[in-house]
Structures are given as C-alpha cells and as structure tokens.
Recover the amino acids of this structure.
C-alpha cells in the first residue's frame, strides 16, 4: 500500500476510477452514454415540468438544456447521471450538493426533484442520439498537435515527475479527448468526467512536543491543518500551534499553465495520445 | 399548468385590496395625527428620505453600496485593529433556505432587509428576529442568486427571477405594486439590487443565454410607472447600431452616482452570442463597458470599453468605485474599476478619459493596451475548435463581490482570482446564447490591495480556495472585513493585510456591511444561508 501511495497520481487515479465506478477497463469519458437503464421512462408531462424546474434551479450553471452553462458541467455526459436509476443517485446528490465544488444543496419538493430527474434523463437520451452536440468538444477537434514536438516538450517540462513508461504508461487507453486535456493541464479539473481527483499531497506535521505525524492532506486553510492518517482517521490542529510541510506536487502544474503556448498544449496532448 | 400565473393573479388582487385598505386607513389616521403631532413625529422619521442617500446616517446601510460612491467603506470607528480580536457573535439569523446568501443586506430604521431569489426578509437589526418575510410565487426564472433590495420612503423593492419589480410596504411586506421589467419568456431574469436616485428607481436585468438587447430601466418608486430605458446594445436589426450585431451587455449590477455631475455609472455585461465572436465583428459597443448616464433621462454621457469584442464572458459589471483624490499631481474626480477581464482601470469620471490600465490578476489574453487605454484582445486567444488556454477563466479576475476603497491608505481591496480556462468555439456551436464551451482548469482566490494611483499590489492575502468568495468592507478605524474561500469570516489590518480576527461561520458569500445602533457597531456577514451579526462584547 505504501508503494501504491507513492505511485504517481494518474495511475492510482485510474485504478480508483475503475474500482469506484465499476465500468471495467474503459474510462467513463471514452464511452458514449449507454441507453437509459430499464424502467427509466418518464411521462411527457413530467419531462415538461422538469424542463421549467430545471431551467429555474439549475439552468444558469448547467445550461437550460443540461448540456453545460456558466461553470456547471454537461449533465448529459455526467458519470453520475449515467449511473442513476430514477433519481437514486441524483436525488441524494441534490440534497447534499458539493459546496466545495460550487454545487449548492437543494431542498426542493419531491415532485420537483422527480421532474428534474425525468428531464435530465430525457436530455441525456437525446444527447446520446444526436451527433455533434451543441457544446460538445469532440475528440476530432483536439487533433491539431504534433506528437514529436509534444514528446520533446514533455521531456523538458514534465519528465521531472512523469514517465511515459511509468505512471503515464497506457494513459491514452484510460482517458481521451477533453478529459485527457483537462487532466493533463490540471489533474482533478473537469469533474467526474475527467476521472477522480488525484491523491492528496503528503503532509508531515511537527507537534509542539516534537512528535511527528504524517498523513495525506484532508483540509487546509489559514487557521487549520488537517490530515488523514494511515488508519484513515482525520486529525486536525490549529495551524499556528504546529509546523507542517505539504508535498504539493500539483504546484508544478499551476506553474506550467503560465508557460504553455496553445501550440505546446496541443503538442503535449498529441504525445500523450500515443501512450497506449 | 397555469399555476404560477394564477398564483400571481391572486397576489395582485390581494395587493390591490391591501393598498386600498391602507389608503383608507391612512386618511383616517391623518386627522388624529394632527392632534398628536409631537407623538407621531418619530414615526415620520421611519420613512426613508431619498436625500439621506447623499449622506447616509451611521445607523443605516441604505443602498446596495452603502452610499452612492461604491467605496463600500464605513466611517465607523468603534471596532478597531486593537479591539477587533474581542469581536463576538451578537446574533445570527437563519433563513432556513439552502441558497447561500449572496445579497448585501440593507439597514434602515433599525430593520435589515435581506434577499435571496424569490425571498425578502425584514429582520430586527438589534437582535436578528424576523419581522416579516415575503415569498414571491413559484416561477420559472433563473434562481442563481440575488444581490439585494432598495428602500424609498416606506417602500422596499425586490426584483425577481422572472424579471418583475415589486414594491412592498416596508412595515409588513405587503405588495404595493408589481411591474414587469422585461419579458422573462424571452430569457430575461433579474437579481438586481435597484439604485434609487431621487425619484428614479434604476433596475437592471440579466440574460446571457439568449441574444437579447442590453437594457437598464428607470421606474417611478411611488407608482412603478416606467420612466426610461437605456439600451447598451440595441434590439437585433436596429439600423445604425454601434454594437456590430452583438446583443447582450446586461447591466445586472448596481451602479454608482455622482450628484455633482448628475451622472449614473454602470458596468455593462458581455456580448451575446457569448463565445462566438465571428458573427459580431468590431468592438461591440457598449458591451463590457462602463457607461455614464443621465439618471433623469437615461441618455449616454460617455462610455469606456474595458473589453472590446469580448469572447470570454468577462462583463465589466463590477462596481465603478467613485473616488475624489489626487492623480497625476492634481485633484480629480476618479472612477476605479477592477474588472472581470483581470485589468484595473482608472478613469476621469467627468469625461470618461482613461488614466490608467494595469493587470491585477493573471492575464494572457491581450496583446497590448491601445491609445484609449483598452486592452487589445489577442485574436489567438479567441475560443477555437481545438481550444485556447486563457487567463483568467470565465469567472474572471474578479466578479460581483464588492471591492472596497480605503481613503486613509489609498488602497482598493479586491477579491481577485488567478485562474485559467480552456475556451472552445466551432461553427456547430451556433450563434445563439452561449455558442461555445469553456472549462475552468485552475483557479486561486486572493485578496489584493491595489495602490489606486498605480494599480500595484501593496499586499496580498491568500484566500485558501479556488475562487474568490466574499466582498470587502473597510472602516475608518483601519479594519478590513471579508471572508476567505474556505470557512472563515476575516478581519484584517487594512494597512498590511495581516489577520486580526476570524470566525469559522462557513463561506462568506456576500459583501460585509456595518452599522451602529444604540452606541454599538455591528458587522453583518452571510455565512452559508445564515446572516451573522458581530459586535464587541456588550457593556451590560
């Protein structure tokens, strides 16, 4: 387990993704949405009611057609929606939200939630049937890079942490298109469609009595440092009462964002696509 | 099917009856009032005189920005850098909603008016107790957020997700009148906190998902009668249009006002279609602009475009902050804006002439700054079929949360955001509404203190999160109130940004305000869906 923890996040992430989502070997993003599971038919009236309720409550972020708007993801390609049966996933998700990701919790009347679920499924079915969805970014759109140039760039800029034969071996079989691009630019961006968040950074906390506690980062702000220890327990300290170091390897991705030209970005993507 | 409409009809009838009943009651009371003048004199003070907005009293926060200048600065001095560490909860008001509070509360006559989409509460400013609540009937407009209310005499005004403007009796929340600002069926909605200037109630709308003209309207605050409409972009196919075929430019944020110049300053939104720039060549005036209008007529005095030909959703709706201060060796009437496109602008607000343009957040989209002080968009950073890596992202270098100008230090404090997004557009995305796709890749919120003369960052305070969360309030005592992007309300030393106090009330989603009642200074901040009032420990 220790070895696994030290392995680069992409490999681990893909393993976790498969385990968590039970989707076999293929990445969620590379699979066209499956037809709706049995028993998912909704009445036209429900769908129509859902359309107006969805527009009012969700449309600003997710678009009136559920295919993405300001800030919100394209729900017609959402992994959560893909595994939902008549609201069994969407309903609890709506109730709790994901405030840390900007998704608020909603307490809507039950009938409204049912209608919204009906509408989202209907939109998803329609999107699956349509070609060249309105806001879709297709795999073919992203093929402007030069893989050789991308390899040279990779060797200079990325090889300090990544290896084509190590952590990134076969990455193109796990991710492709937009999710691969998002993951390349900043792992964890792109929502569930781009796979799970990378493994949290390792943290080493030195207490006042000199005791050292290690774990992975669970939470950090100006006043608190919180870790998950090796037994899975959360531990927190007032940040001012301890010293700590965070091995945040993702910072290299942040710095790289300011260095890429658009050409570089597409070249590196082209190169990653060769890692099958 | 007709449920919302029927509900509203009933509401109209109720409201009408109430107005008539109150009218009768008022006549009856008037006679007795003549005999009790001394006793009712304090009651007359309950009505908010529009001239009070020119010099707001310390016990109030009468308009969205607190005053007409948009500085979001208070002269109160009871809470100081030395004692702010003792700040404690005075009370909390639970809205009971899941919606985060994004609105700036108003305070008038010891009553707080707080809004979320479809809701307004009147809350006792001394103890947080609800006095009344008005809930607008269910409707199909966007319920994305709400900025706040406006007050005038004995009325309080609420805009709605389906773009209505409602006048309520400030005493009990009964509807006085309800008028349509714009047609919600076409895609307009409103989150706007109206701005009152004398007898003009100025109201903006939103509407990014349809190709709609940009409109700002003025209404009579007594009757709801429409007075004028300003178009930032004309209705489609208007001859002689300066917008180059663009629609949009919605004025969804509350403007500021200079009574000496009699000019209203408003930021305008992005053009539509949003990401498809091909079908709207040229600068697309007056989208992404600061416009100066005569509040009596709605006529344009001048305009300055912060983002010519925007293709990234960077409206220039952020607060145009009015400051009278020295610039270039002479006292000037300035207008400061930290704009969503990541650039800080200083304008001469008499003429609209640009005095300074400087980035305050990470930007990579402009190839330079032109003679008029406008950043020149780099065509290579327009959304494309294969995607362009652009800074900032769609949420921008800053957003609607109020900045604050502190006169003592000359600092403009801005909730800034260093971020990257990838922007896509291909012909198949069409030319209606969003017309493209964009994805945030990374963002980091940081509070920045800008020297107003140079735009240089004097200090930064990390907000520990992916996005800017809260607006900013400064006080004459040298304390800055804001919230971080994690979990805390913050008090900072304005001169250097160091932390003096914090409270883990949840993410602050609005702009803090302050007022003094019974000799006690309160600071209000929204944490999640609750409103928190902090004060120094009560002497009792």
């Amino acid at each position: 387990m220790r070895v696994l923890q030290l392995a680069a996040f992409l490999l681990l992430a893909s393993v976790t993704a498969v385990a968590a989502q039970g989707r076999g070997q293929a990445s969620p993003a590379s699979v066209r949405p499956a037809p709706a599971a049995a028993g998912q038919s909704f009445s036209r009236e429900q769908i129509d009611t859902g359309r107006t309720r969805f527009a009012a409550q969700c449309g600003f972020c997710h678009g009136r057609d559920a295919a993405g708007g300001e800030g919100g993801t394209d729900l017609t390609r959402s992994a959560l929606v893909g595994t939902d049966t008549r609201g069994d996933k969407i309903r609890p998700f709506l109730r709790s939200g994901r405030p840390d990701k900007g998704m608020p919790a909603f307490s809507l009347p039950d009938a409204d939630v049912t209608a919204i679920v009906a509408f989202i499924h209907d939109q998803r079915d329609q999107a699956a049937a349509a070609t060249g969805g309105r806001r879709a970014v297709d795999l073919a759109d992203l093929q402007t890079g030069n893989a050789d140039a991308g390899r040279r760039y990779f060797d200079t800029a990325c090889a300090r942490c990544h290896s084509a034969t190590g952590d990134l071996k076969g990455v193109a079989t796990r991710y492709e298109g937009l999710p691969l691009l998002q993951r390349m630019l900043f792992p964890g961006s792109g929502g569930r469609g781009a796979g799970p968040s990378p493994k949290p950074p390792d943290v080493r906390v030195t207490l006042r009595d000199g005791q050292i506690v290690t774990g992975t980062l669970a939470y950090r702000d100006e006043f608190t440092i919180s870790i998950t220890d090796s037994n899975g327990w959360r531990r927190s300290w007032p940040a001012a009462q301890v010293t700590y170091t965070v091995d945040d390897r993702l910072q290299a991705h942040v710095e790289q964002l300011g260095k890429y030209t658009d050409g570089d970005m597409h070249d590196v993507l082209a190169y990653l696509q060769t890692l099958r | 099917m007709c449920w919302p409409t029927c509900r509203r009809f009933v509401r109209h009838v109720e409201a009408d009856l109430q107005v008539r009943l109150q009218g009768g009651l008022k006549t009856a009371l008037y006679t007795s009032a003549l005999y009790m003048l001394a006793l009712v004199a304090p009651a007359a003070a309950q009505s908010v005189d529009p001239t009070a907005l020119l010099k707001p009293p310390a016990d109030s926060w009468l308009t969205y920005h607190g005053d007409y200048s948009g500085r979001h600065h208070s002269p109160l001095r009871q809470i100081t850098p030395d004692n702010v560490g003792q700040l404690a909860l005075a009370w909390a008001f639970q809205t009971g909603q899941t919606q985060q509070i994004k609105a700036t509360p108003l305070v008038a006559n010891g009553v707080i008016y707080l809004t979320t989409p479809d809701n307004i509460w009147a809350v006792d400013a001394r103890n947080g107790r609800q006095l009344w609540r008005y809930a607008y009937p269910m409707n199909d407009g966007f319920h994305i957020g709400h900025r706040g209310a406006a007050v005038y005499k004995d009325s309080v005004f609420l805009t709605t997700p389906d773009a209505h403007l409602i006048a309520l009796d400030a005493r009990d929340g009964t509807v006085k009148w309800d008028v349509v600002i714009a047609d919600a069926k076409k895609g307009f909605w409103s989150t706007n906190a109206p701005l009152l200037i004398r007898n003009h109630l100025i109201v903006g709308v939103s509407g990014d998902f349809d190709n709609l003209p940009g409109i700002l309207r003025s209404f009579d605050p007594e009757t709801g009668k429409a007075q004028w409409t300003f178009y930032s972009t004309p209705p489609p196919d208007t001859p002689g249009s300066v917008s180059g075929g663009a629609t949009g430019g919605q004025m969804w944020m509350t403007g500021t006002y200079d009574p000496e110049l009699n000019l209203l300053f408003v930021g305008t939104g992005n053009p539509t279609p949003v990401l498809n720039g091909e079908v709207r060549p040229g600068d697309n005036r007056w989208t992404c602009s600061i416009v100066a209008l005569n509040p009596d007529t709605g006529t344009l005095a001048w305009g300055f475009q912060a983002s010519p030909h925007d293709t990234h959703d960077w409206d220039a709706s952020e607060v145009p902050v009015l400051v009278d201060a020295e610039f270039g060796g002479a006292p000037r009437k300035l207008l400061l804006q930290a704009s969503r496109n990541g650039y800080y602008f200083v304008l001469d607000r008499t003429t609209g002439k640009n005095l300074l343009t400087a980035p305050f957040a990470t930007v990579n989209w402009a190839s330079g700054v032109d003679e008029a002080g406008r950043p020149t968009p780099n065509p290579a950073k327009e959304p494309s079929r294969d995607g362009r890596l652009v800074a900032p992202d769609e949420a921008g270098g800053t957003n609607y949360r109020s900045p604050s100008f502190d006169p003592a230090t000359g600092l403009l404090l801005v909730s800034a955001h260093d971020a990257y997004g990838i922007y896509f557009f291909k012909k198949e995305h069409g030319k209606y509404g969003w017309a493209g796709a964009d994805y945030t890749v990374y963002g980091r919120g940081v509070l920045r203190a800008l020297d107003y003369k140079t735009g240089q960052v004097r200090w930064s305070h990390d907000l520990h999160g992916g996005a800017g969360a809260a607006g900013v309030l400064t006080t004459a005592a040298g304390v800055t109130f804001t919230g971080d992007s994690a979990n805390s309300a913050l008090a900072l030393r304005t001169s250097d940004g160091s932390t003096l106090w914090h409270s883990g009330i949840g993410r602050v989603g609005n702009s803090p305000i302050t007022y003094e009642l019974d000799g006690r200074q309160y600071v209000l901040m929204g944490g999640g869906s609750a409103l928190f009032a902090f004060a120094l420990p009560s002497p009792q």
Observations:
- Chain B touches chain A through 52 residues (CB under 8 Å).
- Residues 1-44 of chain B form one domain.
